[in-house]
Write a structure and sequence with these properties.
The protein is an alpha/beta fold. It contains 9 helices and 23 strands. A hairpin with a 2-residue loop joins β12 and β13. α1 (about 95-115) runs parallel beside α9 (about 405-420) and α7 (about 355-365) packs parallel to α8.
Length: about 450
Amino acid sequence: MKENSTEPDPPHIGARLTTTVDALAAGGEGIARPDGFTLFIPHTAPGDVVDVEVTRTAKHYGRARLLAVRTPGPDRVPVACPLAEGCAGCQLQHLRYAAQLDAKRTFVRDGLERIGHVHGVDVLPTLGMDDPWHYRNKGEFAAQIIDGRLRLGYHGEDDAFLPLPDCPIQHPLSIEILHAVEEIGTELRLPVAQLITRVSPHTGEALAILVCWNWDDNLRAAAEALQARVPALVGVLWSRVHGKSVVRRTLAELLTGRGHLMQRLAAWEYGVSAESFFQVNTTQAARLVELALSYAGELHGRSVADGYCGVGTFLIPLAQQAGRALGIEEHPIALRDADRNLGQYGLHEVKLYEGRVEILFPRLVRKGRQVDVVVLDPPRKGAGRPVLEHLVALETERVVLISCDPATLGRDAGDLTALGYKLQYVQPVDMFPQTWHVEAIALATR
């Protein structure tokens, strides 16, 4: 112990310890406190007695890797996937599903209280799934050449490449496409850097995007061969990597078939292009839409705005009930989808704006617009104070805030509270079973 200090000394890197896991942190790691020092340990569950090796230390906390579970905690279960302990995709597969739901409720509450300093809000029990497997309607798979063969899979926790024989959270059609791309890509020596799949559980159809390092004259032949191999594959597209990272790539171009799917959420259907955002869990997204409608309240004769409208996921159900509606979206392909989807429902009076919310909200204010209800489903970074400040000038009475990150939910909720809104309740929705991620929908009122 340091002289004149109550802080425990950190263990040295490489130290091997036996300790008990007390809780789970957002991120899915277990928290243990050997001799009062906080250690984060992946693949552990509350109540586990574990042997670990310290891999990193800082002043107030450290990290360790799991060596062995001496005594399993009450919620530990066998993992369903042989890659689970090395894969970065599923952080909670070793945890009983009911315990996953409880943990996600805690993550949301902690984000509100620790980051947003919002206390006393009713965080409801997490809405789970009857079958929390094979739910992902979108797959993103890295590519690598191994022994002369194209292999597709994930990057693990240590960035090691993991070829994928199967994945229990992906829709089976994505895995079927993956293996077909491996075979045909190997045969034709395609310069594939990444495979993206999109599946419609409603129609049973799928799209594939071949993200390539460069154009190859075999791509069209490969696309036709893939459709012949996988009949449910109704469209194959390609895009080119910019630089060295697949994160930067050109917009996808159609090789064969069509470039969109029909997705169904509860009573609504949406045309979704290959690169438009759409919730990855169709079952839970339908519940989210119904919750958003409920939280929006009575809309007859009122005005509503969807700040990140995408293909119209929330905008269409809201616009069917509201007197006036508008949607904002910065991705031009998604906005085109939204326009087509609105037309399908005869909602031709809905205004669509292309651009960023933080730019377009001030324009609405300058024009003297008033919006009774605003729905915000921002990216992981959240809405942010500059966006939320304009809700007061828009005289918005009800804000339906949707978030996929407890930390940014907490920050945005704190900002709303500071701006004079009251958070009524928060409903976590398990959009991502077996992972630590959690969607939440909240209602704030003036």
